[in-house]
Amino acid sequence: MSLLDDVSIVVTPNGYKAGELYAVVPAASLGNNVIVNGDFATDSDWNKGTGWTISGGSANCDGSQTGATNLTPNVDNVTNNTVYKTTYTISNYVSGSIRIKLGNTGQGQYHSANGTYTEEIKALVTTFPRSQFNADVDFKGSIDNVLVEEVISADMDVTRATAATRVDEAGLVNYAEIIGGEEITNGNFATDSDWTKGTGTTISGGLANLDGSAGAFVSALYQDIPLISGKTYRITFNISNFVSGSLRIRFDQSFTAIGNMTQDGFYEFTKVAASNDDRINFVTNAINTICSIDNVSVKEQSRDNVPRIDYTGGGCPHILAEPQRTNLITYSEDFSQWFKIGSPTLTSDYGVSPDGTQNSTRLQMSTTNKIFATVSASGNISFTVYLKGTGQIRLRDNTSTGLQDVTLTNEWVRYELNFNATISNFQIEQQSGTSDLEIFGTQLEEGSYATSYIPTSGSTVTRNQDQFTRDGISSLINSTEGVLFVEFKTLTETGVFRQFNLSKDNSNRIYITKRGDSGNLEFRMENPSGNLNFSFSENTTNDFVKVAFRYGLNNFAVFIDGVNKNVTATGNVFASGTLNTLEFDSPLGQPFFGKVKQLQVFKTALTDSELATLTTI
Predict the structure, then answer these.
(1) Binning pLDDT at 50, 70 and 90, where does residue 61 land?
(2) pTM exceeds 0.70
(3) Most exposed of 116, 331, 548, 602 (fewest Cβ within 10 Å)?
(4) Which string of DSSP letters, residue by residue, matches 235-284?
(5) Confidence label for 493 from pLDDT (cuts 50, 70 and 90)
(6) CATH number of the domain encompassing residue 576
């Protein structure tokens, strides 16, 4: 018999999308449809706002409303923080838009065309535990075939609201991101089709060619594409055979433009789509613009809330969760913007940097040379930088409180310096002799330890805290007995608690804590019938640790790296269905920051032998 026969939740570094980390177990399934009479077979079970009628097997809005109008089931049917799959069909569409909403603020997308629409939406309920259709003042059309089905899974909701980097499986530093499908047709110009050509533009030989006869500020080439307002898109293309002039791109039919291409090369831009962005349009920015365009691509790009599967150190990956941090160095890669003393020589785009592109800077220095960046920081400070080369250089702040001599190697190394001071600049200097090095990715942050790289290009940049949680899963957690198992490693930080929780609220929870005051691992149950607490001194900052906490009526156990800690305690647990949330956090706001290789929840109280097997390293 396998331990997996009893496991109800398995979370590992596997598949993900923006805002969600997929669980291995259970496979997502759908509960019952909470909508009654979703096929509108009868004129019943719905509260109809102005303009709504039910007939002919559909709900119909005739457009007579003078404001927004709603169609609502006449019974409560959704639960707060529960994810539902919603499906409905719009037909007989004339005008306006409509969306489905779950609870007070669990809002789907507005739709304004015939079709069947499917979305996963989390119900957010404060005072209104119902689904509802919201039609705007202009909506005229029908809806049918309404389904609202609970999504039963342990996929973790991921919240950060900012982009963040990680180390990928190739050892490269890059953004965790999701790239959507291609929006452009015939972006390689294999045929003379799909594009609208302006004066002097031809398509041949796998290129779009501008001959210079179009004049300035006119459309040379465009294609209509269905961009979604508020989404971010990545635009890439090549310019070749450049002779003269200048080229820009627009995404709407106004004069808002980005880029200024004046030479051959590969170009990449990002753009948040506005409501009137409906095409990619190459526009001449000068007379006599002569060049060729190729390999045009437009894809949706998601970087906010993307969970980070990190490979730092090589080997198996881990889930990375970090606190909010700000890179106070405003130019982390462009060292031409740093101040210089003496005569250091800088060469931009010299070599391949840790992000895999040719954007490192060569820095050649002799005695008394230095470069420095102005910053304003105080308290615990961490400075990091990627370096490779020959010679020895010094990293230091303007007070010399933080100071480290570095002997360079021919491999990229991320050096870290931690200190406590109030500073106004940070320096890289040559004390004696000479050095010839490559430099990339400087970061200075207020905190007692360094976190993942935050790129900057002209201003400070903040990466928000990672949050992992899954609500509304009481069916996947046995409140009367079970096991919480985690393999993890914490980040170094004192004075704070880091927790994994199975909970309903602060008075009903099972959790594992790494204490910041003592450094101990703590295993606790908080229950109105009485609390239990087991504490052990274990190092979780240098190595991964496997821990398991068994709970049940008078049946508790703690295992750490295969060792039974022989706890003795009696106590009650919870009523069936009490525990409904899994989170890398606590109801008191004590989020886990560190690395997680796996987390499992069992609905049975495993035996000592099974726990030893589960936690053995």
Answers:
(1) very high
(2) yes
(3) 116
(4) EEEEEEEEEES-EEEESSSSS-EEEEE-SSEEEEEEEEPPTT--EEEEEE
(5) low
(6) 2.60.120.200
